[in-house]
TrEMBL record:
Domain Transcription regulator PadR C-terminal, residue spans: 93-181
The protein's name: PadR family transcriptional regulator
Gene3D superfamilies in the cross-refs: 6.10.140.190, Winged helix-like DNA-binding domain superfamily/Winged helix DNA-binding domain (1.10.10.10)
InterPro entries to which the protein is assigned, alphabetical: Tscrpt_reg_PadR_C, Tscrpt_reg_PadR_N, WH-like_DNA-bd_sf, WH_DNA-bd_sf
Segments traversing the membrane: none
Location of the Transcription regulator PadR N-terminal domain: 7-80
Superkingdom in the source lineage: Bacteria
Organism: Streptomyces fimbriatus
Pfam families for the chain: PadR (PF03551), Vir_act_alpha_C (PF10400)
Length: 187
């Protein structure tokens, strides 16, 4: 999948500047699609050129002008067609830590432990951030009520996927650390 559809999906929330979209990616999309601000700005230019988004300039005093982007009807149609297509291929894990774990038998066990503990810290940090996003989305409502009444539930459902992913990361890391503790040093 290209960044194109992630940007179009982000604009379903409404008009946004490139800066605002980069913040949306940091919070709402980070659990399933990463992007740098530079990539976002390049993609916004392509989408504007292709007629899938419109840009308008907002004049600001004492600040540079900013461009605000909205979905066009062509962009909505393209996104609807994309959403109806089956994924091209299943998700594949590409994780540098897994390569390091694969090769750990020739590495320092303490270095391996440190890498796994670092991954756990990252997962905990993401889970804390996702919990804040979840609370903001629910806004005092129960999950059941939110899912029944909210205008859009896609962002919440993808957030649940991100939460499940990081919880599984933590479980796996705990299992790796337990296995490392059980091994007797060879020598």
């Amino acid at each position: 999948m290209s960044l194109k559809y992630a940007v179009l999906a982000a604009l379903l929330e409404g008009e946004a500047s490139g800066y605002e979209l980069s913040k949306v990616f940091d919070v709402s999309f980070a659990n399933f699609w990463a992007s740098t601000p530079q990539q976002l700005y390049r993609e916004l230019e392509r989408l504007t050129r292709d007629g899938l988004v419109e840009a308008r300039v907002v004049r600001q005093e004492r600040r540079p002008d900013k461009r605000m982007f909205t979905l066009t009807e062509a962009g909505r149609e393209d996104l609807r067609a994309f959403a109806a297509e089956p994924p091209r291929r299943p998700t594949a894990i590409r994780d540098e830590l897994l390569i390091k774990i694969q090769a750990m038998d020739d590495a320092d066990p303490e270095a391996t432990r440190a890498l796994v503990e670092e991954r756990m810290a990252w997962a905990r940090g993401k889970l804390a951030r996702y919990a804040r996003v979840r609370e903001r989305l629910l806004d005092g409502r129960s999950e059941e009520r939110y899912l029944r009444e909210a205008d859009r539930i896609g962002p919440y459902l993808t957030l649940l996927g991100g939460i499940a992913f990081e919880e599984e990361n933590l479980r796996w890391c705990e299992r790796v650390l337990a296995a490392l503790r059980q091994r007797t040093p060879r020598g």
